[in-house]
Amino acid sequence: MEKKTTTSNSAEQIGYSEDLLMEILLRIPPKSLLQLKLVSKQWRSLISSTSFRLSQTRMKASLKPYALFIDTLSLASEIAVLPINPDDDVSTQ
């Protein structure tokens, strides 16, 4: 039962953060975005906006992988979108 609450809280956090929602939607294929416009007025407005279209164009020009981290274990939940650089040397010591 607790897992459902955590999922719900994460979804609410994403829904309240228009910047985070935009970061996620920018990575969705264009055909799927047409269907996602039906989710809510907020999503339709965001996906239809000029700023979203410009961001989509910029995103396509610089396709780099990102990771989404949601910390729900601490009292103050945090969300972070971080770039992943495949050229970074990740060695364990």
Automatic annotation (TrEMBL):
<dbReference type="InterPro" id="IPR050796">
    <property type="entry name" value="SCF_F-box_component"/>
</dbReference>
<dbReference type="InterPro" id="IPR036047">
    <property type="entry name" value="F-box-like_dom_sf"/>
</dbReference>
<feature type="domain" description="F-box">
    <location>
        <begin position="16"/>
        <end position="56"/>
    </location>
</feature>
<protein>
    <recommendedName>
        <fullName>F-box domain-containing protein</fullName>
    </recommendedName>
</protein>
<dbReference type="InterPro" id="IPR001810">
    <property type="entry name" value="F-box_dom"/>
</dbReference>
<dbReference type="Pfam" id="PF00646">
    <property type="entry name" value="F-box"/>
</dbReference>
